[in-house]
Amino acid sequence: MYDFTYHRPSSLDEAASLLAGAEDGQFIAGGQTLLPTLKQRLARVTDVIDLGGIGELSGIAVLGSRIEVGATTRHADVAASADVRNAIAALAELADSIGDPQVRNQGTIGGSLANNDPAADYPAAVLGLNATVHTNSREIAADDFFTGMFETALDAGEIITKVSFPLPEKAGYAKFPNPASRYAIVGVMVAATGSGVRVAVTGAGPCVFRARDIEGALAADFSASALDGVTVSADKLNSDLHASAEYRAHLVMVMAKRAVAAAG
What architecture is the 58-263 domain classified under in CATH? Predict the structure, then answer.
């Protein structure tokens, strides 16, 4: 690890000011991606700005027809929250499936979304549940937030403050995890919402995406059997030592059916 200057601001304004004044600064939340990257000397920064000391960024609140999760809320806290389990059980179950206990007790929802790893779980929740990502300057709809592999709509210096999830009529999540990392080789979030059915797939492609053919089938009949005969193209899907693109395409349908069954 290269030397850097560590900062722990107590407000969003202070955090933004520290980043603006740094030669090559980087925010850190749970550190589950940044710290290993720095340890392996795959990145070199002059300043690390820890968002963990900003109290307003953490917490869970149910507000009428939505539930809000602060950006630095840990995965373990989402998984254990009675409010989350009562409002969107699939979201709590998704959080409980992330990594291992060490990762769940350090990793944060905001850090996961800002990093946008193609095999992360939270992007499927945000896209599938039609959430809104709030930052220190604006609100970003889920359909506009994820733009590519490790890429998002966030501007330089923009800080995620919270994520707002509208309460679905029903929702389910299922994933086929890598047995070592617990990252999703394929994960599927299925949700029936007031505006229609949404299906988000993570792990299968370079970036989380909506499976429109599956959405169409479930809109007509929200049941696992409605997906019999529906297929997903392997074109543009990931292919690596863990699974070929063709196998991932098959897994999307298997996980989609399991997610529908879980939602039901």
Answer: 2-Layer Sandwich (3.30)
